[in-house]
Amino acid sequence: AVQIVDAIERIFLWLDGFGVDVILFIDDWQRAPSETQAFFSLAAREKLRGRCKVIFAERRRTGEKGLSHSKDEVIVVGPLNGNDRTMLLEPALGNNGAGRAIAEWLGASASGLPFDLLEAARAFEERGAIVSDGNGWKIDAERAALIDREDIVQTLVGRMQKLPQPVRKIGIALALWGDTVELRQIAKALDSSSENIAAAAEALRDFGIVLIADGIASFRHDRLKSALLDSAAQQDVAALADMMSERILNGGMQRPVA
């Protein structure tokens, strides 16, 4: 731990040497183990004398206490309010009133996070939980009750499990590799053709899971990546990871960047 903190301090000094402001953004800090708190203290000290600024983003549940330091500048970003939710969902669903109906039905029971709201709206459409009666949109309460308003994780996992099995397997391989994946490397790791990998990646793109540019796939959100990994039995995911690792070690492939 001492060596890691020392290395981080050297990085701060190196960044400061550029003579320009550098912002280091660390997301999901609430997931960090307790041993990393020394990093937070170091960052708080270094930012007082250098031009490298560190932003720690963490998601707190009600009643939880986050990180604190006497020199912190804390910005609290709350969930979207009713009007903002409607403004987010309306264009996503075609500006025809469906977004407003879903936003009103979800109310304050939903998380209020943009990603969760959009995924909830997608679930409403996929399950036929919102219908038009000719005069407007209404919610099918029985079908809507199957959608968890507060936690969209299981909805996401269920969505991944509906993917065609070959597409889901390649999606899991992408998720095992990282947030951003070069498709030709996945083809080598799975001993598959580039055309097969590209077709699966395009299917994942059409399902709204990844973006593709210049032969590189990137996940639209880390929770989509996590949902893919949770969509299969863990022993199957581990077996796929072992196979890919063997290909990397024995085939001379470039290892993924952590």
What does this structure look like?
The protein has 258 residues and is mainly alpha-helical. Helix content is 51%, strand content 10%. A 3-stranded antiparallel sheet has the order 5-7-6. Helix 1 packs parallel to helix 2 and helix 3 runs antiparallel to helix 4. The model has no long low-confidence stretch (mean pLDDT 81).
- Rg over CA atoms, rounded to whole Å, is 22 Å
Q: Could you say which overall geometry the principal axes of the C-alpha atoms support?
A: globular
In N-to-C order, the SSE pattern is: HEHEHHHEEHHHEHHEEHH
How many DSSP E strands?
7
- By DSSP (H or I, 4+ residues per run), the number of helices equals 12
* Secondary structure: helix percent: 40-55%
Q: What's the average pLDDT? A: 81
How much of the residues is beta strand, in percent?
5-15%
Kindly name the structural category.
Answer: mainly alpha
Span between N and C termini? 18 Å
Question: Which ranges are low-confidence, i.e. pLDDT below 50, for 5 or more consecutive residues?
Answer: none
Strand order in the largest sheet: 5-7-6
Describe the sheet with the most strands. 3 strands, antiparallel
